[in-house]
Amino acid sequence: MLGGVSPKALLAGVMVACFLVSIPIWLTSSPEDKQHLAQTAVKKMVETNVDLLDFKPEEKEELRNMLKPEEPAKQPDFEQTVWVKDIIQTIQPWVSDESEAEAIARWVYVYSKRSNLSPELVLGVIAVESRFDHFAVSNVGAIGLMQVMPFWKDELGQQKDNLLEIETNIRYGCAILRIYINRYKTLSRALGAYNGSLGRMKYPNKVFAAMKRFKATDYGI
């Protein structure tokens, strides 16, 4: 799984469609070139067939603002402190290092609140996308906890952003998901857009199931 693109749902279709014209290039390419070709093909399909990167000017401006780093509060509020402590214990099956678990929980809370998302929704996406491995890289180059494609940096972010960093990855993932919710109005459709499977329920249902592990009480927007 990856933020905005599903390898199984999209990459297979891209490769089949481009098979005849790409074989000579693919066979003579290095592993790095193959990954670049796959990323380019996925981005092209998203642009032309799924229409997920066709942002209006106001959407671009909102997304750029959400992609700006957030300084953590010097004194976390009581609700954040309690929530983070609880989630650290909950995600320990995936993240055994307590400091890493604390960083994930803290930034999930910060950026979910800033993007007006349920923190449990963000955790559900992370569980499905990467199983909380912040070093995860998919076969088409999607990166980190929320499996964000690098082309998002080219579109609306900054080249210097490191998507393997916990804070950066969660910031990108939350911003992208919020834009899709604003556009598609329902959480199911927004999750489908995030995954590259707009209109299908397989991926949203996986996220909803994962959210139960984090004591989610609200499955709406």
Describe this structure in words.
The chain has one domain (7-214): Lysozyme (Orthogonal Bundle), CATH 1.10.530. The protein contains 10 helices and no strands. The protein has helices spanning 7-27, 31-50, 57-66, 78-90, 98-114, 119-129, 151-155, 166-184, 187-195, 202-211. The longest helix has 21 residues, at 7-27. The chain starts with 6 loop residues before the first helix and ends in a 10-residue tail after the last helix.
Brief characterization of the structure:
The chain has helices at residues 7-27, 31-50, 57-66, 78-90, 98-114, 119-129, 151-155, 166-184, 187-195, 202-211.
Q: What is the CATH fold-level name? A: Lysozyme
Question: How many domain modules?
Answer: 1
Number of helical elements? 10
Strand tally, please? 0
Measure the end-to-end span: 21 Å
Mean pLDDT: 80
User: Helicity range of the residues?
Assistant: 55-70%
Find the structural class using helix and strand composition: mainly alpha
CATH class: Mainly Alpha
Radius of gyration over alpha carbons?
17 Å
Instruction: Indicate the low-confidence ranges by residue numbers.
Output: 7-27, 45-50
CATH architecture: Orthogonal Bundle
- Report the portion of residues in β strands: under 5%
**N to C succession of SSEs:** HHHHHHHHHH
Estimate the global geometry from the Cα principal axes: globular
Largest sheet: none
